[in-house]
């Protein structure tokens, strides 16, 4: 009888440990997914900045507002982007500074 109680406690302890490790694994997988998304966003931003550097001043561009509405705009080349650095703070940087910031 004592052996059955001891076995039951060991089983409960093993199950609790399993559940803890499963939650830890799930949280780690979510963090990995978030980091992968952040890396993809950063690469996309770098590619866009590199492309924007080549656009001549006053070029007419079409910018999507949503899936069915497009806006025609005249591009003004200022060699500047605004970077959100958190806590509602935005910093203005030139293209090369922005690329360096994104690489860090």
Provide a descriptive summary of the structure in words:
- With 104 residues, this protein is of the alpha+beta class.
- Helices cover 59% and strands 20% of the residues.
- The chain has a domain at 2-54.
- The protein contains 2 helices and 4 strands; from the N terminus they run αββββα.
- Helix 1 (2-53) runs antiparallel to helix 2.
- The longest helix has 52 residues, at 2-53.
Descriptive labels:
two-stranded antiparallel ribbon, alpha+beta, two-stranded antiparallel sheet, 20% strand
Tally of alpha and pi helices: 2
Could you give a short account of the major beta sheet? Answer: 2 strands, antiparallel
What value does the Rg take, in angstroms? Answer: 26 Å
The quaternary organization reads as: single chain
Strand fraction equals: 15-25%
Helix coverage percent:
55-70%
Look at the helices and sheets and give the structural class. alpha+beta
Distance between the termini: 62 Å
Mean pLDDT: 95
Q: Give the total of beta strands.
A: 4
- State the low-pLDDT regions, or none: none
Element order, helices and strands?
HEEEEH
Strand order of the largest sheet: 1-2
3D shape: elongated
Task: Produce a short descriptive summary.
With 104 residues, the chain is of the alpha+beta class.
Write the layout of secondary structure elements.
Layout: H1 2-53, E1 60-64, E2 70-74, E3 81-86, E4 89-93, H2 95-103
Antiparallel strand pairs: 1-2, 3-4
Helix pairs in contact: 1-2
């Amino acid at each position: 009888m004592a052996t059955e109680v001891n076995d039951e406690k060991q089983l409960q302890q093993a199950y609790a440990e399993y559940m803890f490790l499963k939650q830890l694994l799930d949280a780690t997988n979510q963090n990995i997914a978030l980091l992968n998304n952040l890396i993809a966003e950063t690469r996309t931003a770098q590619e866009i900045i590199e492309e924007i550097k080549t656009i001549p001043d006053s070029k007419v561009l079409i910018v999507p507002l949503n899936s069915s509405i497009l806006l025609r705009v005249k591009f003004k080349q200022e060699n500047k982007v605004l970077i959100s650095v958190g806590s509602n703070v935005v910093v203005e940087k030139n293209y090369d500074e922005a690329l360096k910031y994104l690489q860090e």
